[in-house]
Amino acid sequence: MALGGGFWLKMNKVLPGAYINFVSKRKAQFDSVDRGYCTMALDLDWGASDSIVRVEKDEFQTNCQAIFGYDYAHEKMKGLRDLFLNAKTLYLYRLNSGAERAKCDIATAKFGGVRGNDISISVQADIDQDSKYMVTTYLTTDGVKKAVDKQTGLSTPADLVDNEFVVFKKDGAFVVAVGTQLTGGTNGEQITAAEYQKYIQYIEPYYFNALGYVGSDDTIKTLLQSFAKRCREDTGAKFQVVCYNKAKANYEGVISVLNKVKDKGAEVGSLVYWVTGAEASCEINQSCTNKLYDGEYDVDTNFKQYELEQAIKDGQLVMHRVTDGASGNIEGDVRVLEDVNSFTEFTKDKSKDFSKNQVIRVLDNLAYDIARLFNRTYLGKEGTDSIGFTALWTDIVKLLTEYQRIRAIKEFDDKDVQMPYEGDNKGDVVLNLEVNPVVAMTKLYCTCTVA
Protein backbone atom coordinates (compact mmCIF):
# COMPACT_ATOMS: atom_id res chain seq x y z
CA MET A 1 0.00 0.00 0.00
CA ALA A 2 1.33 3.44 -0.96
CA LEU A 3 2.17 5.98 1.71
CA GLY A 4 0.37 9.35 1.87
CA GLY A 5 1.29 12.03 -0.61
CA GLY A 6 0.07 15.02 -2.66
CA PHE A 7 -0.43 18.69 -1.89
CA TRP A 8 -0.96 20.21 1.54
CA LEU A 9 -2.54 23.40 2.85
CA LYS A 10 -2.66 22.64 6.58
CA MET A 11 -0.48 20.21 8.54
CA ASN A 12 -3.39 17.89 9.24
CA LYS A 13 -2.49 14.77 7.20
CA VAL A 14 -3.08 11.37 8.81
CA LEU A 15 -0.95 8.96 6.76
CA PRO A 16 2.84 9.07 6.88
CA GLY A 17 4.50 10.16 3.65
CA ALA A 18 5.82 13.15 1.72
CA TYR A 19 3.42 15.94 0.90
CA ILE A 20 4.99 18.38 -1.57
CA ASN A 21 3.60 21.63 -3.00
CA PHE A 22 4.91 23.12 -6.25
CA VAL A 23 4.40 26.88 -6.59
CA SER A 24 5.92 29.65 -8.67
CA LYS A 25 8.35 32.03 -7.08
CA ARG A 26 6.59 35.38 -6.78
CA LYS A 27 7.86 37.66 -9.52
CA ALA A 28 6.79 41.11 -10.56
CA GLN A 29 4.68 41.02 -13.70
CA PHE A 30 4.60 43.42 -16.66
CA ASP A 31 2.06 43.25 -19.44
CA SER A 32 1.09 46.33 -21.46
CA VAL A 33 -1.75 46.66 -23.96
CA ASP A 34 -0.86 47.13 -27.61
CA ARG A 35 -1.87 50.16 -29.67
CA GLY A 36 -2.93 50.62 -33.29
CA TYR A 37 -6.62 49.70 -32.96
CA CYS A 38 -9.28 52.03 -34.33
CA THR A 39 -12.92 51.99 -35.35
CA MET A 40 -15.08 53.80 -37.88
CA ALA A 41 -18.71 53.61 -39.00
CA LEU A 42 -18.88 54.17 -42.76
CA ASP A 43 -21.39 54.60 -45.56
CA LEU A 44 -20.33 51.87 -48.03
CA ASP A 45 -21.49 50.32 -51.30
CA TRP A 46 -20.65 46.77 -50.18
CA GLY A 47 -20.00 44.69 -47.10
CA ALA A 48 -21.53 43.04 -44.06
CA SER A 49 -24.18 45.00 -42.13
CA ASP A 50 -25.37 44.93 -38.50
CA SER A 51 -22.02 43.64 -37.26
CA ILE A 52 -18.48 44.71 -36.46
CA VAL A 53 -16.00 43.52 -39.09
CA ARG A 54 -12.36 43.30 -38.05
CA VAL A 55 -10.00 44.35 -40.86
CA GLU A 56 -6.25 43.93 -40.42
CA LYS A 57 -3.75 46.06 -42.32
CA ASP A 58 -2.52 43.12 -44.39
CA GLU A 59 -6.11 42.07 -45.17
CA PHE A 60 -6.88 45.53 -46.50
CA GLN A 61 -3.85 45.31 -48.78
CA THR A 62 -4.51 41.78 -50.05
CA ASN A 63 -8.29 41.24 -49.81
CA CYS A 64 -9.71 44.75 -50.09
CA GLN A 65 -12.09 43.95 -52.98
CA ALA A 66 -13.87 41.11 -51.19
CA ILE A 67 -14.34 43.20 -48.02
CA PHE A 68 -15.23 46.58 -49.49
CA GLY A 69 -16.23 45.73 -53.06
CA TYR A 70 -13.43 47.75 -54.64
CA ASP A 71 -9.76 46.98 -55.23
CA TYR A 72 -7.03 48.62 -53.17
CA ALA A 73 -6.21 51.29 -55.76
CA HIS A 74 -9.79 52.44 -56.37
CA GLU A 75 -10.64 56.08 -55.63
CA LYS A 76 -13.30 55.01 -53.10
CA MET A 77 -10.59 53.34 -50.99
CA LYS A 78 -8.55 56.54 -50.71
CA GLY A 79 -9.62 57.35 -47.17
CA LEU A 80 -8.99 53.82 -45.94
CA ARG A 81 -5.57 53.82 -47.60
CA ASP A 82 -4.82 56.93 -45.53
CA LEU A 83 -6.11 55.22 -42.39
CA PHE A 84 -3.99 52.10 -42.85
CA LEU A 85 -0.79 54.06 -43.39
CA ASN A 86 -0.59 53.89 -39.60
CA ALA A 87 -3.47 51.81 -38.22
CA LYS A 88 -2.94 48.15 -37.40
CA THR A 89 -6.55 47.03 -36.99
CA LEU A 90 -9.88 48.60 -38.00
CA TYR A 91 -13.15 47.59 -36.36
CA LEU A 92 -15.52 48.52 -39.16
CA TYR A 93 -19.26 49.09 -38.89
CA ARG A 94 -21.24 49.54 -42.08
CA LEU A 95 -24.02 52.06 -41.59
CA ASN A 96 -26.13 50.77 -44.50
CA SER A 97 -28.19 48.27 -42.53
CA GLY A 98 -31.13 48.62 -44.95
CA ALA A 99 -29.10 47.87 -48.08
CA GLU A 100 -30.84 45.69 -50.69
CA ARG A 101 -29.00 42.84 -52.39
CA ALA A 102 -28.80 42.73 -56.18
CA LYS A 103 -30.21 39.59 -57.83
CA CYS A 104 -30.57 37.64 -61.05
CA ASP A 105 -32.05 34.26 -62.00
CA ILE A 106 -28.98 32.31 -60.95
CA ALA A 107 -27.47 34.28 -58.05
CA THR A 108 -27.93 36.89 -55.32
CA ALA A 109 -25.20 39.31 -54.23
CA LYS A 110 -23.52 38.28 -51.01
CA PHE A 111 -24.11 41.73 -49.51
CA GLY A 112 -26.56 44.55 -50.07
CA GLY A 113 -25.48 47.72 -51.83
CA VAL A 114 -25.16 49.34 -55.23
CA ARG A 115 -21.88 47.56 -55.86
CA GLY A 116 -23.87 44.38 -56.37
CA ASN A 117 -25.26 45.87 -59.58
CA ASP A 118 -21.77 45.64 -61.07
CA ILE A 119 -21.77 41.84 -60.82
CA SER A 120 -22.70 39.63 -63.77
CA ILE A 121 -22.84 35.85 -64.24
CA SER A 122 -21.91 33.92 -67.38
CA VAL A 123 -23.06 30.31 -67.99
CA GLN A 124 -21.38 28.49 -70.88
CA ALA A 125 -20.73 24.97 -72.07
CA ASP A 126 -17.40 23.63 -70.79
CA ILE A 127 -15.41 23.01 -73.97
CA ASP A 128 -13.05 20.69 -72.11
CA GLN A 129 -15.75 18.39 -70.73
CA ASP A 130 -18.80 17.10 -72.59
CA SER A 131 -22.19 17.86 -71.08
CA LYS A 132 -20.58 20.03 -68.45
CA TYR A 133 -20.86 23.75 -67.80
CA MET A 134 -18.60 26.64 -66.81
CA VAL A 135 -19.93 29.46 -64.63
CA THR A 136 -17.97 32.71 -64.35
CA THR A 137 -18.64 35.61 -61.98
CA TYR A 138 -17.60 39.04 -63.27
CA LEU A 139 -17.17 42.36 -61.48
CA THR A 140 -17.18 45.58 -63.50
CA THR A 141 -15.13 48.50 -62.21
CA ASP A 142 -15.01 51.83 -64.06
CA GLY A 143 -16.19 50.12 -67.24
CA VAL A 144 -13.70 47.26 -67.06
CA LYS A 145 -15.16 43.78 -66.51
CA LYS A 146 -12.95 41.22 -64.78
CA ALA A 147 -13.58 37.63 -63.73
CA VAL A 148 -13.48 37.17 -59.97
CA ASP A 149 -14.55 33.50 -59.87
CA LYS A 150 -14.67 30.66 -62.39
CA GLN A 151 -16.08 27.18 -61.79
CA THR A 152 -15.79 24.39 -64.38
CA GLY A 153 -16.97 20.82 -64.82
CA LEU A 154 -20.45 21.53 -63.47
CA SER A 155 -23.39 19.24 -64.21
CA THR A 156 -26.19 21.11 -62.44
CA PRO A 157 -26.52 24.29 -60.35
CA ALA A 158 -26.33 22.05 -57.28
CA ASP A 159 -22.58 21.71 -58.03
CA LEU A 160 -22.00 25.47 -57.65
CA VAL A 161 -20.02 26.80 -54.70
CA ASP A 162 -20.81 30.27 -53.36
CA ASN A 163 -17.94 32.74 -53.78
CA GLU A 164 -16.93 36.06 -52.18
CA PHE A 165 -19.47 38.00 -54.26
CA VAL A 166 -22.59 35.89 -54.84
CA VAL A 167 -24.75 33.18 -53.35
CA PHE A 168 -25.90 30.84 -56.12
CA LYS A 169 -29.34 29.33 -56.56
CA LYS A 170 -28.77 25.57 -56.51
CA ASP A 171 -32.03 24.28 -58.00
CA GLY A 172 -33.22 23.76 -61.59
CA ALA A 173 -30.98 23.39 -64.61
CA PHE A 174 -28.34 25.54 -66.29
CA VAL A 175 -29.44 27.99 -68.98
CA VAL A 176 -26.59 29.19 -71.18
CA ALA A 177 -26.19 32.98 -70.96
CA VAL A 178 -23.23 35.15 -71.99
CA GLY A 179 -23.64 37.57 -69.10
CA THR A 180 -26.61 38.05 -66.81
CA GLN A 181 -26.42 41.29 -64.83
CA LEU A 182 -27.47 41.42 -61.18
CA THR A 183 -29.88 44.29 -60.51
CA GLY A 184 -31.83 45.88 -57.69
CA GLY A 185 -28.95 46.54 -55.31
CA THR A 186 -29.31 49.67 -53.16
CA ASN A 187 -27.49 51.23 -50.22
CA GLY A 188 -30.76 51.61 -48.32
CA GLU A 189 -32.36 54.71 -46.91
CA GLN A 190 -30.58 57.88 -45.87
CA ILE A 191 -28.34 57.34 -42.85
CA THR A 192 -29.56 58.96 -39.64
CA ALA A 193 -28.39 59.27 -36.05
CA ALA A 194 -30.21 56.02 -35.29
CA GLU A 195 -27.59 54.10 -37.28
CA TYR A 196 -24.82 55.65 -35.17
CA GLN A 197 -26.72 54.72 -32.02
CA LYS A 198 -26.73 51.11 -33.20
CA TYR A 199 -23.03 51.42 -33.99
CA ILE A 200 -21.99 52.50 -30.49
CA GLN A 201 -23.94 49.59 -29.02
CA TYR A 202 -22.04 47.17 -31.24
CA ILE A 203 -18.59 48.71 -30.75
CA GLU A 204 -18.63 49.33 -26.99
CA PRO A 205 -17.26 45.91 -25.91
CA TYR A 206 -14.19 46.20 -28.18
CA TYR A 207 -10.75 47.52 -27.29
CA PHE A 208 -9.63 50.38 -29.53
CA ASN A 209 -7.58 53.55 -29.22
CA ALA A 210 -9.37 55.94 -31.57
CA LEU A 211 -12.84 56.32 -33.11
CA GLY A 212 -12.99 58.33 -36.32
CA TYR A 213 -15.94 60.28 -37.73
CA VAL A 214 -15.42 61.92 -41.12
CA GLY A 215 -18.79 63.67 -41.42
CA SER A 216 -19.82 67.21 -40.52
CA ASP A 217 -23.07 66.55 -38.65
CA ASP A 218 -22.74 68.27 -35.25
CA THR A 219 -25.42 66.02 -33.74
CA ILE A 220 -23.38 62.92 -34.56
CA LYS A 221 -20.21 64.57 -33.25
CA THR A 222 -21.95 65.33 -29.96
CA LEU A 223 -23.31 61.78 -29.75
CA LEU A 224 -19.84 60.30 -30.21
CA GLN A 225 -18.32 62.75 -27.71
CA SER A 226 -20.94 61.75 -25.14
CA PHE A 227 -20.22 58.09 -25.88
CA ALA A 228 -16.49 58.62 -25.32
CA LYS A 229 -17.10 60.56 -22.10
CA ARG A 230 -19.37 57.85 -20.70
CA CYS A 231 -16.93 55.08 -21.60
CA ARG A 232 -13.84 56.91 -20.33
CA GLU A 233 -15.39 57.98 -17.03
CA ASP A 234 -17.94 55.26 -16.24
CA THR A 235 -16.80 51.98 -17.80
CA GLY A 236 -13.02 52.45 -17.99
CA ALA A 237 -12.76 52.15 -21.78
CA LYS A 238 -10.11 54.64 -22.84
CA PHE A 239 -10.25 55.98 -26.39
CA GLN A 240 -10.41 59.32 -28.20
CA VAL A 241 -12.90 60.44 -30.83
CA VAL A 242 -11.32 62.03 -33.90
CA CYS A 243 -13.67 64.29 -35.85
CA TYR A 244 -13.64 67.28 -38.17
CA ASN A 245 -13.81 70.79 -36.67
CA LYS A 246 -15.71 70.10 -33.44
CA ALA A 247 -15.77 73.61 -32.01
CA LYS A 248 -15.45 74.03 -28.25
CA ALA A 249 -15.58 70.33 -27.44
CA ASN A 250 -13.33 71.01 -24.43
CA TYR A 251 -12.64 67.35 -23.67
CA GLU A 252 -9.44 65.35 -23.69
CA GLY A 253 -11.35 62.47 -25.25
CA VAL A 254 -12.01 64.46 -28.44
CA ILE A 255 -9.45 65.39 -31.11
CA SER A 256 -10.82 68.07 -33.43
CA VAL A 257 -9.12 68.26 -36.85
CA LEU A 258 -9.28 71.80 -38.25
CA ASN A 259 -7.95 71.26 -41.78
CA LYS A 260 -10.31 70.43 -44.62
CA VAL A 261 -9.33 68.69 -47.85
CA LYS A 262 -9.67 70.23 -51.30
CA ASP A 263 -10.13 67.05 -53.34
CA LYS A 264 -13.13 67.07 -55.67
CA GLY A 265 -15.91 64.80 -54.42
CA ALA A 266 -14.26 64.10 -51.04
CA GLU A 267 -15.86 64.99 -47.72
CA VAL A 268 -14.19 68.09 -46.30
CA GLY A 269 -13.26 66.16 -43.16
CA SER A 270 -11.52 63.30 -44.95
CA LEU A 271 -8.26 64.08 -43.16
CA VAL A 272 -9.87 62.34 -40.17
CA TYR A 273 -8.97 58.99 -41.77
CA TRP A 274 -5.25 59.67 -41.51
CA VAL A 275 -5.41 61.32 -38.08
CA THR A 276 -7.45 58.42 -36.66
CA GLY A 277 -4.85 55.90 -37.81
CA ALA A 278 -1.94 58.06 -36.67
CA GLU A 279 -3.35 58.73 -33.19
CA ALA A 280 -4.45 55.12 -32.65
CA SER A 281 -1.03 53.72 -33.53
CA CYS A 282 1.13 56.37 -31.85
CA GLU A 283 3.01 54.70 -28.98
CA ILE A 284 2.86 56.01 -25.44
CA ASN A 285 6.45 57.24 -25.67
CA GLN A 286 5.85 59.12 -28.93
CA SER A 287 3.97 62.19 -30.17
CA CYS A 288 2.30 63.13 -33.45
CA THR A 289 3.70 66.64 -33.14
CA ASN A 290 5.55 67.49 -36.38
CA LYS A 291 4.50 64.16 -37.90
CA LEU A 292 4.66 64.21 -41.70
CA TYR A 293 1.34 63.80 -43.48
CA ASP A 294 2.10 61.10 -46.03
CA GLY A 295 -1.45 60.51 -47.23
CA GLU A 296 -3.14 61.18 -50.57
CA TYR A 297 -5.45 64.12 -49.90
CA ASP A 298 -4.81 67.73 -50.89
CA VAL A 299 -4.81 69.34 -47.45
CA ASP A 300 -5.85 72.96 -47.07
CA THR A 301 -3.04 74.59 -45.07
CA ASN A 302 -3.94 78.18 -45.90
CA PHE A 303 -3.52 79.59 -42.39
CA LYS A 304 -1.80 82.75 -41.24
CA GLN A 305 0.53 82.70 -38.25
CA TYR A 306 -2.01 84.15 -35.85
CA GLU A 307 -4.63 81.65 -37.08
CA LEU A 308 -2.32 78.76 -36.24
CA GLU A 309 -1.76 80.22 -32.77
CA GLN A 310 -5.51 80.59 -32.25
CA ALA A 311 -6.10 77.02 -33.43
CA ILE A 312 -3.81 75.68 -30.69
CA LYS A 313 -5.52 77.87 -28.09
CA ASP A 314 -8.91 76.59 -29.27
CA GLY A 315 -7.85 72.95 -28.92
CA GLN A 316 -7.75 72.22 -32.65
CA LEU A 317 -5.31 69.78 -34.20
CA VAL A 318 -4.06 71.61 -37.26
CA MET A 319 -1.59 70.81 -40.03
CA HIS A 320 0.65 73.40 -41.61
CA ARG A 321 3.15 73.51 -44.43
CA VAL A 322 6.83 73.46 -43.47
CA THR A 323 9.37 74.65 -46.05
CA ASP A 324 13.15 74.37 -45.98
CA GLY A 325 14.66 76.83 -48.42
CA ALA A 326 18.21 75.85 -47.50
CA SER A 327 17.62 72.32 -48.81
CA GLY A 328 15.61 73.49 -51.80
CA ASN A 329 12.25 72.30 -50.41
CA ILE A 330 10.28 75.37 -51.45
CA GLU A 331 6.88 73.68 -51.70
CA GLY A 332 7.22 72.24 -48.21
CA ASP A 333 5.82 69.25 -46.35
CA VAL A 334 2.46 69.06 -44.60
CA ARG A 335 3.00 68.28 -40.91
CA VAL A 336 1.03 68.22 -37.66
CA LEU A 337 1.65 71.51 -35.85
CA GLU A 338 1.08 70.13 -32.35
CA ASP A 339 -0.48 66.91 -31.07
CA VAL A 340 -3.29 68.42 -28.98
CA ASN A 341 -6.86 67.50 -28.13
CA SER A 342 -9.86 69.78 -27.59
CA PHE A 343 -9.44 70.30 -23.81
CA THR A 344 -8.97 74.03 -23.20
CA GLU A 345 -10.56 75.03 -19.89
CA PHE A 346 -7.78 74.11 -17.46
CA THR A 347 -8.29 73.77 -13.71
CA LYS A 348 -6.23 72.96 -10.62
CA ASP A 349 -7.29 69.32 -10.93
CA LYS A 350 -6.73 69.12 -14.70
CA SER A 351 -3.88 71.28 -15.94
CA LYS A 352 -2.78 72.11 -19.48
CA ASP A 353 -0.94 68.78 -19.52
CA PHE A 354 -4.26 67.05 -20.21
CA SER A 355 -4.52 68.88 -23.54
CA LYS A 356 -1.50 66.98 -24.86
CA ASN A 357 -2.38 63.69 -26.53
CA GLN A 358 0.91 62.12 -25.53
CA VAL A 359 -0.01 62.62 -21.86
CA ILE A 360 -3.48 61.15 -22.47
CA ARG A 361 -1.94 58.11 -24.20
CA VAL A 362 0.28 57.44 -21.19
CA LEU A 363 -2.58 57.80 -18.71
CA ASP A 364 -5.00 55.76 -20.83
CA ASN A 365 -2.56 52.89 -21.29
CA LEU A 366 -1.62 52.98 -17.62
CA ALA A 367 -5.30 52.72 -16.67
CA TYR A 368 -5.69 49.66 -18.91
CA ASP A 369 -2.46 48.04 -17.70
CA ILE A 370 -3.23 48.44 -14.00
CA ALA A 371 -6.81 47.21 -14.47
CA ARG A 372 -5.68 44.15 -16.43
CA LEU A 373 -2.99 43.36 -13.88
CA PHE A 374 -5.44 43.58 -10.99
CA ASN A 375 -8.23 41.67 -12.75
CA ARG A 376 -6.00 38.83 -13.94
CA THR A 377 -3.77 38.33 -10.92
CA TYR A 378 -5.44 39.75 -7.82
CA LEU A 379 -9.21 39.96 -8.22
CA GLY A 380 -10.68 37.11 -6.18
CA LYS A 381 -7.24 35.51 -5.80
CA GLU A 382 -5.13 37.51 -3.33
CA GLY A 383 -6.02 38.45 0.23
CA THR A 384 -6.12 41.94 1.72
CA ASP A 385 -3.13 41.37 3.96
CA SER A 386 0.49 42.47 3.93
CA ILE A 387 1.49 39.66 1.57
CA GLY A 388 -1.19 40.57 -0.99
CA PHE A 389 -0.57 44.30 -0.70
CA THR A 390 3.20 43.87 -1.08
CA ALA A 391 2.75 41.71 -4.16
CA LEU A 392 0.45 44.28 -5.77
CA TRP A 393 2.83 47.12 -4.88
CA THR A 394 5.74 45.21 -6.40
CA ASP A 395 3.88 44.61 -9.66
CA ILE A 396 2.83 48.26 -9.97
CA VAL A 397 6.41 49.41 -9.36
CA LYS A 398 7.61 46.95 -12.01
CA LEU A 399 5.01 48.29 -14.45
CA LEU A 400 6.01 51.92 -13.92
CA THR A 401 9.71 51.05 -14.05
CA GLU A 402 9.06 49.63 -17.52
CA TYR A 403 7.16 52.80 -18.48
CA GLN A 404 10.24 54.77 -17.45
CA ARG A 405 12.57 52.44 -19.35
CA ILE A 406 10.70 53.12 -22.60
CA ARG A 407 10.63 56.85 -21.73
CA ALA A 408 6.88 57.15 -21.34
CA ILE A 409 7.35 58.63 -17.83
CA LYS A 410 10.31 60.19 -16.06
CA GLU A 411 11.76 60.79 -12.59
CA PHE A 412 9.99 57.73 -11.23
CA ASP A 413 10.91 56.35 -7.83
CA ASP A 414 9.27 53.41 -6.08
CA LYS A 415 8.29 55.85 -3.32
CA ASP A 416 5.87 57.35 -5.87
CA VAL A 417 3.72 54.25 -5.35
CA GLN A 418 2.21 54.09 -1.88
CA MET A 419 1.67 50.73 -0.26
CA PRO A 420 -1.91 49.60 -0.99
CA TYR A 421 -4.28 49.33 1.95
CA GLU A 422 -7.78 48.10 2.68
CA GLY A 423 -10.61 50.55 2.04
CA ASP A 424 -13.82 51.16 3.95
CA ASN A 425 -15.24 47.75 3.03
CA LYS A 426 -13.72 44.29 3.24
CA GLY A 427 -12.11 43.47 -0.08
CA ASP A 428 -11.69 47.10 -1.15
CA VAL A 429 -8.10 48.04 -2.04
CA VAL A 430 -6.86 51.64 -2.15
CA LEU A 431 -3.84 52.44 -4.32
CA ASN A 432 -2.28 55.90 -4.70
CA LEU A 433 0.56 56.66 -7.10
CA GLU A 434 2.19 59.55 -8.92
CA VAL A 435 3.53 59.66 -12.49
CA ASN A 436 5.23 62.30 -14.61
CA PRO A 437 4.60 61.65 -18.34
CA VAL A 438 7.32 62.50 -20.84
CA VAL A 439 6.24 64.77 -23.70
CA ALA A 440 8.00 65.55 -26.96
CA MET A 441 10.02 68.76 -27.32
CA THR A 442 8.02 71.53 -29.01
CA LYS A 443 9.79 74.85 -28.41
CA LEU A 444 13.43 75.87 -28.12
CA TYR A 445 14.35 79.10 -26.33
CA CYS A 446 18.04 79.75 -26.97
CA THR A 447 20.33 82.60 -25.94
CA CYS A 448 23.63 82.89 -27.75
CA THR A 449 26.25 85.08 -26.10
CA VAL A 450 28.94 86.37 -28.46
CA ALA A 451 32.28 86.85 -26.75
Radius of gyration: 29 Å
Strand content: 15-25%
**What's the main sheet like?**
7 strands, mixed
State the total count of DSSP E strands. 19
Q: Rough shape?
A: flat
* First-last Cα distance: 96 Å
In what order do the strands lie side by side in the largest sheet?
4-5-3-12-13-14-15
The secondary structure category is: alpha/beta
Helix segment tally? 8
How confident overall, as mean pLDDT?
A: 93
At CATH level 2, the architecture of the domain at 37-96 and 192-336 is: 2-Layer Sandwich
Helix content: 10-25%
Give a description of the structure.
The protein has helices at residues 57-68, 78-83, 193-203, 218-235, 271-281, 305-313, 357-378, 386-405; strands spanning 4-6, 17-19, 37-42, 52-56, 89-94, 107-109, 119-125, 133-141, 144-154, 166-168, 177-181, 210-213, 240-244, 254-257, 316-317, 319-324, 329-336, 421-422, 429-430. The chain is an alpha/beta fold and 451 residues long. Among the domains are: 37-96 and 192-336, Dna Ligase, domain 1 (2-Layer Sandwich); 107-181, Immunoglobulin-like, CATH 2.60.40.4290. The strands form 6 sheets. Strands 4-5-3-12-13-14-15 form a 7-stranded mixed beta sheet, with helices on both faces. A 4-stranded antiparallel beta sheet has the order 9-8-7-11, with no helix packed on it. The protein has a two-stranded parallel sheet with strand order 1-2. A hairpin with a 6-residue loop joins strand 18 and strand 19. Helix 3 runs parallel beside helix 4 (218-235) and helix 7 (357-378) runs antiparallel to helix 8. The radius of gyration is 29 Å and the shape is flat.
